[in-house]
Amino acid sequence: MTTLSEQIASEVARRRTFAIISHPDAGKTTLTEKLLLYSGMLRTAGMVRARKHAQTTMSDWMALEQERGISITASAMQFVYKDAVINLLDTPGHQDFSEDTYRTLTAADCAVMVLDAAKGVEAQTRKLFAVCRLRGIPVITFINKLDLPAREPLDLLHEVEEVLGIASSPVNWPVGLGRAFVGVVDLTTHEVLRFRRSDQGGAQRAAMEHIALEDLASDPGTEPETVTKVREDMELLEGAGNKFDRAAFLAGKVTPVFFGSALTNFGVEPFFDALVSLAPAPKPTTIIRGAGEQSEVAPTDTTFTAFVFKIQSNMNPKHRDSMAFVRICSGRFERDMPVHHSRLDKDIRLSRSFTVMARDRDTVDYAYPGDIVGLTNPGIFALGDTISTAKEPVSVPPLPRFAPELVARIRPLDVMRKKAFDKGIEQLSAEGTIHLLYPYESPASNPMIAAVGQLQFEVCQYRLEDEYNVKVELTPLSYSQCFYLDGDPATFKRTQNAALAKDRFGKVLVLFSQEWERDYMAKHNPSHAFLPMAA
Ligand code: G4P
Is 297 exposed, middle or buried (0-12, 13-18, 19+ CB in 10 A)? Predict the structure, then answer.
């Protein structure tokens, strides 16, 4: 008979928890869909993108978020690929949501970076990659759209190294580019994986054949120029290519690179196979025990620990409620289990727990480290909360917040909708979509919202209308800097333009717009201090 700890260990070994990062349009949706196709979750591909394109308004992100059918837009998806249990986390692609992305990546053990072969490293890739680097997680690169005119592969690798500052190590190499693209050479075995398009243009798996590199010249579909080019490239790589080093990859110092076309499925299966073999299984998590000493909890520890990395309201119009997503760090989750909620110092029972896939919620009975579980949140969970069966209270180091740079006054257009408005902004703020601030001197007057980027405001406005039926007016304010104020607000001397505010938890903030104001206020308030909102 296997013990609980052995069972946890064998489940942990199968888990791969990752997120896909990319610049919009590089192919994240298509690749995700193909992962579902090759996992047997979808019989034909094409649906997810079709739905995405049915939306004509708003940004891609919102169109995606709006359409919560079977899609990558679920906050997390779980499925089995061959023997591996995949937990795929959704990261919003837009830079305004870097904070959200960061939080999501705290729940991921690895990231897949998708690049468009014609465009290389784009602006959003850079920002998302920077977040991965900050988190120190390994990154696997998939260079997509090789079936279209593409840049020279060596050029692309060089750009990854120059722009992102990470060594790149190609695992396979494209055979032909654009129309001539027929497959990839495995750089370890020197075997060509030759693909053939399926009749339904990518909706079904592509047939794959193994050909020895020496025999490529006799393959009828491969152009002679392609054969020559691949040979030349191989020679160049012999001398120049970085050899793959697993330890350096796990340390985030080198990214293995794969080539393919998500649309036609060329190179997709070898990439997925390599992904599950390269991506690490869940690792120990740093936790803070009782009085504040940091230690690590191994995933195989039988003590259950999990933390809240995402809160989402109104996931499903049929269930107008809030959901807290936890990542399991150690032990085994069992439905209905009693746990200790560290922040509230309270014992609770996890009776309403779900895996979220599509609109349907599947009740989970057991879950293991690396897994994501959605818990119905009757207002008891906040971002960064920890639940555990440990004897002493445990918590995870605080999730970082990015300092907001935009502030606006917000008010419901119809005063009769004030109650729904209050609920809506509270919930959106609990999710971390926006910061909710109340004027310090007149807390009952219209609140303010603060965000890193304009899109967060648009999403907030849109969701208040869509989910809470409240139309709002936003009046931009000139503040661009927000700091927590340490010290007595009553004796704080501020510049004429600066304002004081309180956040949802009653912490006092000072808002202003110019750098000189900060120097001025610091000088005139020696017994006060400005504490950054970003951690
Ligand atoms: P995203 O989630 O990263 O934003 O990208 P998405 O997968 O939606 O792909 C963006 C566009 O690029 C889509 O085309 C998609 O079909 C196309 N695409 C993705 N991967 C490949 C590939 O490997 N080869 C080629 N040729 N195209 C690819 P679209 O025109 O915007 O949509 P659709 O009309 O094709 O649905």
Answer: buried
Q: Verify whether ligand 1 is closer than 6 Å to residue 27 (CB atom).
A: yes
**Count of other CB atoms within 10 angstroms of residue 155:** 11
11-20 burial, b for 16+ CB within 10 Å, e for fewer?
bbebbbbbbb
Distance CA 156, CA 141 (A): 11
Indicate whether residue 422 lines ligand 1 (CB < 6 A): no
Is residue 38 situated within a structural domain?
Answer: yes
Structural domain count of the chain: 3
Nearest CA to 178 out of 196, 157, 152 is that of 152
Q: Is 434 helix (H, G, I), strand (E, B) or coil?
A: coil
Q: How many angstroms does the Cα of residue 516 sit away from the middle of ligand 1?
A: 47
CA atoms within 13 A on the CB side of 442: 5
CA dist 492 and 506 (Å) reads 17
**24: Cβ below 6 Å to ligand 1?**
yes
Is the pLDDT reported for residue 65 higher than 70? no
- Higher pLDDT pick, 501 / 52: 501
Domain identity same for 346 and 440: no
Q: Is any atom of ligand 1 closer than 6 Å to the C-beta of 30?
A: yes
pLDDT at residue 315, rounded to an integer: 59
Nearest CA to ligand 1 atom 25: 145
Q: Which residues contact 61 (CB under 8 A, 6 or more apart)?
A: 24, 92, 93, 94, 97, 455, 459
314-355 pLDDT per residue, tens: 655 555 567 888 999 999 999 889 999 998 899 999 887 776
Which residues span the domain enclosing 361? 285-395
Q: Is the CB of 25 under 6 A from ligand 1?
A: yes
The answer to whether position 96 is within a domain reads no
Q: Both 271 and 151 in a single domain?
A: yes
